[in-house]
């Protein structure tokens, strides 16, 4: 495939060909589905070392499922295999258990492998995909597509652009929370355990913008933690009430919010979620 500059390309079809669509996945579970999709890229010589990529994607899934709900999953891996972005799409008629946040089986899988040669590439690529897929009408059209060509035409409508503050799904507050937990555990871990935690932390860092990570690291260095829960309308990092509207938005959201008083990232109380 001819190399593209994602920051200049405007549509998903710049990285997707009809031959990279599996219109009827045979896989019955998550790992089989990922393996089946990677096999398409390997046979077209779009990736090397399929086994390595499969391992990385499975490791990422174990950290947190890439199923975003509504029957959609976006498995991915950042692997140093060249300067291309490789995409493969699969449709499952029966649905596959992907440990989705809404417990629904996944019917659409968009798998992406990319090289870490552009900062913020993950957010840039997924902004357009997410904004497209969160709309029920688009998902309905995808699931009702009668042929591979029709599915390709629908997916070709996806525009790729830089994410905005309004983009959801992209800014993963839960990832920041997990990164904080890993960084705290690393301080007390043995040498072998520390390597394992470092690997998981790097998976998360690959998916977050440099500006977020810079703020996160500065907060961790200064206070020992960077993410605080909002419980009963108050930031547990400074015990100051947050704006009522912000508090209600944080509940059930995975967007990133910042306390106006102490500057820490805010997430919904785990007690309320449970």
Question: What can you see in these coordinates?
Answer:
The chain has 274 residues and is α/β, with parallel strands linked by helices. It has two domains: 12-155, Mannitol-specific EII, Chain A (3-Layer(aba) Sandwich), CATH 3.40.930.10; 173-273, Helix Hairpins. Helices cover 41% and strands 16% of the residues. The chain has helices spanning 30-43, 50-63, 121-133, 136-143, 148-155, 173-188, 191-205, 210-223, 244-250, 270-273; strands at residues 21-22, 67-69, 72-73, 76-78, 85-96, 106-114, 227-231, 234-235, 257-258, 265-268. Strands 1, 2, 3, 4, 5 and 6 form a six-stranded mixed beta sheet that branches. A four-stranded mixed beta sheet has the order 8-7-10-9. Helix 1 (30-43) runs antiparallel to helix 2 and helix 6 packs antiparallel against helix 7 (191-205).
What descriptive keywords fit this protein?
single chain; 274 residues; alpha/beta; Mannitol-specific EII, Chain A; Helix Hairpins; 2 domains; 6-stranded mixed sheet; 4-stranded mixed sheet; 10 helices
